What does this fold into?
Amino acid sequence: MTAKNIKVYRDLMGANATWAAKTRRLLEGERVAMVNLIGSPGSGKTTLLEKSARHLKKTRFAVLEGDVETTRDAERIQKLKVPVSQLLTGGACHLEAKLVHYALKDLPLDRLDLVVVENVGNMVCPAEFDIGEDAKVAVLSVAEGEDKPLKYPLLFRESKAVVLTKLDLLPHLDFDLKACLEYIRQINSAAPVFPVSAKTGEGLKEWAGWVLQLK
Amino acid sequence: MHEFSICEGLVRAVRQEMKKHGAPAGSLRRARVVVGALHQIVPENLEFAYEVLVRDTEAAGSRIELRVVPITAKCGACGWTGTVTPPVFLCGACNSGDLELTTGKELYLDNLEIEQDDG
It folds into this structure.
């Protein structure tokens, strides 16, 4: 018995990439921008969306909520009278392009300018998957510690912007804001950072302004 | 544990390639996979996923072999090229963050090692 090697070269993200490309064509045709919010559970992604809505009034937007279980987040968004679709992954730690593509087809895309996707709370896996978005955005709360960008570099490298949430908690924490900004710069010098507080409203207008220019 | 999602695609590709090349069940020794260092893939998790997912298929008994490609980049400011080590993505010469990554994002099934009769 001998062994022979067969050269194959097969891209393992191929199937996901195909769906992501399909989604890009769909959204381009409808002139809709898509943002993919990624951050840990409890980083404040849903609250950020709730409080940003007021500043996004000029645009017609919808939300796709990715969760492992429950429709609680979608119910929160529904109260804002914004079209929302809940995606339940049933255990999977991230959204994949195919699931997002089918969810988009259920939205009234011809009457929208923007879709915001709230990915499953997780800083690792969602960073690996292209879902056809225009921009991934890393959401990090100051309660999580300034070294998180160093621990999850792929997310911060892949993101086109970073939102630092819960800024109002700073006086109660030892969070080193300057160090955090420097870590983000080292990983991704092109990404703007938006420090915000959903409680006081600080920074939300600037963050929403950045989202609006994606159109 | 996104390794399982990735591995599902891998096992599908392995089985399709075996069929295409007429490799009989049980003849596959190794599936060699190339992974860019930018991917957060834990080799042990991928190996475990592979072992589970090839069970009861024609690829059962084969092993996965990973080759990791380092992250390299070209600096847009000074033209430097070299290796980048996360979490710092800065030019090794001028410290600029204007880097274009040239390798490190690979993720593909490279080749299959198949046993064959000499006769």
